[in-house]
TrEMBL record:
Belongs to the UPF0173 family. The lineage of its organism: Archaea, Methanobacteriati, Methanobacteriota, Stenosarchaea group, Halobacteria. The keyword Hydrolase applies. SMART domains: Lactamase_B. Keywords: Hydrolase. Gene3D superfamilies: Ribonuclease Z/Hydroxyacylglutathione hydrolase-like (3.60.15.10). It comes from Natronorubrum thiooxidans. InterPro entries: Metallo-B-lactamas, RibonucZ/Hydroxyglut_hydro, UPF0173, UPF0173_UPF0282_UlaG_hydrolase. This is UPF0173 metal-dependent hydrolase SAMN05421752_10870.
Amino acid sequence: MEITWHGHSTWHVTVGETALLIDPFFDNPKTDLEPADIDTPEYVLLTHGHADHIADAGEFSDATLVATPELVSYCQDEFGFEDAVGGMGMNLGGTVECGDAFVTMVRADHTNGIMTESDASGGMPAGFVISDTKPTQAADEESTTFYNAGDTSLMTEMREVVGPYLEPDVAAVPIGDHFTMGPWQAGVAIDWLDVDYALPQHYDTFPPIEQDPAEFEREVKATGSDADVVIAEADEPFEL
């Protein structure tokens, strides 16, 4: 599995021969790329409907959309997406097979109104757990699993469900504060998740979420976690 951060909460994930793009938003100060620079992935995953997570989704409307049914419906109308997993999107707790990847949608504590003239609802906000094997109750030490927490606060589901049962190897968590977790809550989240690698996201895009990611690294260490904090350079692949 290879993951690439394109700034803010935008990730390109390759599992086997399958490419997935999460929350495409390239109008951020970390990346030099435009949507046209990205080969169209097989799947676009949207955690929720806020503009800084779906703004460039329409540039990839030939991909299969993975999101809540409410958000799928909105994106079909707004961006011309024709395909969605199962023809109707998915919802919290579900796992769908996306090419060589298995995608499980998990809860995120956030809001999800789409602020347009109609004030559409995007359903529940979500995070995604992406693995090269189907999750089961039997631990699989050979699997590789990436957890993107989406926009969220600290929540016990990370400790009680995502960490022990979905067993991510690496987690991308928001650290920007103000709209999501800040560094100290994100540090606790990494400890609860018991991952090998921790990557910060959703920071430095706008003035309210400016953060020094070194503070996140300090907070992770303060919990006693053994996770390696990787402060990713935008557009540089990270191999798992």
